[in-house]
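Q: Got a minute? One more chain.
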Amino acid sequence: MKALVTVILFVVILSMIQCADPETPPQITSPFADSYYMKEDDDTPKTFKCSSSGNPAPTYEWRKDGKVFSDSLQISSDKMTGELKITKPAIQDFGSFQCFASNSHGSAMSAPFKVERAFIGSFTDTTLKDLPSAKQYTNVSIPCVGKPRCVPGNECKVEWKLGEGTSNTVDETKRIAVDKMGTLHFLYVDLEDTSSQAKPYACGMNNELMKAFYKGGDVIMTVIKQTNPSSVKPLALYSQDVKGLLGGEVELQCVFSGYPLPDIEWYSPENVLIKPSFKYSYRIPDVKRNLIIKQLSADDEGTYICKAINIISTAQANVYLNVTSKPRFPEGQIFESQVVPRGDNAVFRCNMESMRYEKRPSMPIWRRNGVVLNPSQIGSSSSQKYHLSDDGTILTIKDVQNPGDSCNIMCQTSNVIIDVNGDDAEATSYADAFLRVIDPITVQLLTQAQLEIDAPEPFSMAFSATTDPSVPKLIYKWSLLGADNLTYYDHNTLMSKPFVSFNIDMNNLTIDPAKVNMDNDDDKVRAVIGTYRVNISHTHDWEMRSFEITSNIKPATKAPIISSAGFDLWIIGVILGVIVLLIVVFFIICTLYRNRGGEYPVDKKEVAAGHDPAQELKDSGFADLSRADGEKTPFDKVSLSDDVKPLESDEDSMMGDYDDDADMTKFNEDGSFIGIYMDKKGLLHG
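A: Always. Here it is, folded:
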């Protein structure tokens, strides 16, 4: 009983070991933006959570500007949870932060990110400006002069005020617009737009994150009344090319003047009219001067056309949208972790790319456990562990060993994109993955690899296979190869044969030739000989072993096969052609024979009646005419223009030889004349 309990306990422990999660180096899983902004002495804490995979569970370390820092009242971190907390930062507390996760198999690091100070400066120009008087129904544009620096750019906005203080905001309407440069446009002015020294226009900069507003200089504008306004054709006052980040949102703007106010239409790069949808919208739906495009893709890049139309004319402006992105992997590809058997090579590919028409990313920088691989570690000689492809995008780690080569691998590369402040800036992409080295599959044969059989008696093929404990189960696939080394039976077919049996682990195959469905013992033996092959595999490794089963029994005698003489198809074609030709010739001959010359039916009948038609024709003068039987007279070749003897008169014609009283109905059934006629003497002939 005690022995049974011991066995059960051993099996349970072994199962727990095999089912446990495999030990792996860390891999950072939490994404961070490139930049975060806080105002100085901000009372609201900002928390950053660093997360990673890895077994054993990693511990965390945060670094500022590349150095480990000590916790303070402003900045603190937790090594177990990976949290970083920043509260009421002073100027010296802003900088670049990076998280490191480590366990016994390696270290991973996050992409660094900046925590920057939100800022707004003062206007550099606050002088009073008195604009020239403007005529009613004409356009006026007032630039915002002396704008201060304001960050982050996506939280900063130019606003125009009318009068003292900051509460009376000049709202955008169909007639009034503020472009992205902060210029105030009156698409046409009206009397109500007049300002004064007591109630001037002024532009200001609002930083929403800081809840701060700074105001610039005052502007006075006088509007002169017009009693008989004339229509004004549209005029493009503002349009500007823009950049947008892949997957993000962008706003395109066109500002047109005109009286009456023009209607605006937008057209895509394919010259298709844009209508509101989940993809496209307008900041002011009734105005349509600001087009918003969401979820930017590479296909959104191109030239957009905005058209303004009123009763006078049409105006047009173009806006080019450049969709950009930091380096990224092609669609469907990732920087993939590797689980590699000991002794094999591990290959990592960092083939990140830029958007089309943009410069390629920089050559990747490779790190192992957060430390840059220096040139002395990388090369092409067999003694060096790491090898890079010529373009630096493929890293090969040769002959990996356990546990020394298990680690985290990171690649980084950069290009130039637009940042949150609307400026071109270098953007860096990081990708990390782990390398886990496992024990390879090992196979030991428990029976002979070659066996000769001469009688239908059972025999077995067996082996034992082991691999890394973290691999839950090995998979076995058997097959039988014929003499031509091609698969005769695959695994499923082999399993279905009555003479084949497996043990529960599939690593012992027994063959019983006596169960082969044949009458002759020699045939039973011949049916089971060949090469038995087994593939042993799991997700990351495989091995193959073979067993040769032979026999001295002679191959079965086969009746000789007498192959019939080959008969080329072209010969058959020639024969058929000759037959067709002979048939055609035969029909031609038959046709000619049926139409040949000879005696006519009248001659035959006259001869049969005892007359001589030829002599009678000669006596009567008919011999001068061509005969129907083909005999020709000397006049046959005389043309109509020859000098010949004139024909006899009508009285002397041969028609006169026939008497009107003669019976002219005497004709044969085929239409030929029977031959009864009357000569000049009145004698009847027939």
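A: The chain has a mean pLDDT of 84.
Q: Perfect, thanks.
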